[in-house]
Amino acid sequence: MTLALAFALLVLTVPLAGGRLSRLETIRLRWLWLAFMAFGLQVVLVTVVPEGDTGLHRILHLATYALVGACVLRNLDLRFLWVAAVGGLLNLIAIAANGGVMPASRGALATAGLDVQSGSFANSDFVDDARLALLGDVVAIPAAWPGANVFSVGDVVMLVGVFLAVHAAAGSRLAGSARTAPPRSQGSPAAR
Description:
Radius of gyration: 18 Å
Number of helices: 6
C-alpha cells in the first residue's frame, strides 16, 4: 500500500514538472523478469508461507536482493538508477548484517501499529541487538495515516532514485537536461 501511494504521487508529479508520461513507454528495462520473480518470492515468503524453516526464509529473502541487483546492474545506463541501487545496497547491508531480516525498531513498529512477529518469518521485524540498526526500518508512517508502515534510509534513497529516474525519462524539469536526451530504445532482442 505504501509503495502504491508513493508511486501514484510520483506519477502525478511528472506532468506538474513539465514531463510527459508518454515518454516512459519508450523505456525498455532489460531482465525485468528478475525483479518480478524477486517480488513474487517475497510475497510468498511473507504472506503465503511465513511459517516454516526460518533459516531457509532468510536465505531466500537475501536471494531476492541478488535477483533485483542483477536487473538493476543490467539497466544502470538509465539516468539516476544508480541512486536507487545505492538505496537497495543500504537495505541489503542491514539485512545481511542481521541474518536475513531487516531490523525494525520497536518504536517505529508501534507508531505504525505493527506487531513484532514471533514464530513466523517477517522481512522486517524487531531484532534483539540489531547490527547497523540505523540502516533498519526506524522511521514510521503512523497507524492513523494511509499506508502506515515502517521504512529505512535505504528505502528513502531508493524512492529518490526512482523519482529522479522517472523524471529524467519523462523529460521533466526536475531532472535537468533530460529533455534533450532521446529515450533509450528497445535494443536487440538478445539484450533482454
